[in-house]
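Researcher: Please translate sequence to structure tokens.
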Amino acid sequence: MPERRVDDPLGLRFLSELSPPDNVSREIGFYLAGMDEVREQVREAVGNLSEEKFNRPAFPGAHSIGALVLHIGEAEWWWMQCNVAGHKLTDEDRKAPFWDVLDEPDAFASRAYTAEFCLQEIEKVRNQTRELLASFNDNDLERIIVYQKRKITHEQSLRWILHHLIDHEAQHKGQILLLKRLMEG
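Model: Translation complete:
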């Protein structure tokens, strides 16, 4: 079925219906389709930004749009690879362009990443997520993932994690659009 898109007042395009990809189970596929829809909106929001606007905070104390884009990838990688897949964080992992990107705003600006580079980095993360999700079935959505954060044990279902990733990226997409509007005057 061809994609049908509708436009919104901010110029972003939304799918008028979600279709799960063929290589994953149906319900997981709907989550993945939702994730991909928000990702496409992020791509549209930042794709035409100059390197200067992409890397510069809109005002003192704000994160740059570029740092927020990489943070989206960092969060997805941490949830899916470290928590769902059980990967143990290594020193090599910490060298990834997205790792702890919001911790040092000035360091991010000095790297002069392009929007294209950052979008490619988070697409690599999404491809890892797709590969991982292809190994699950819909019954796994209720599987409880146990993880440690700040020395506290947490439990979340895979369903909650996928919902959270959509929500997290959508919130940062809104933040990016606001920062973009502030910089454009």
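Researcher: Any highlights?
Model: The longest strand covers residues 144-149.
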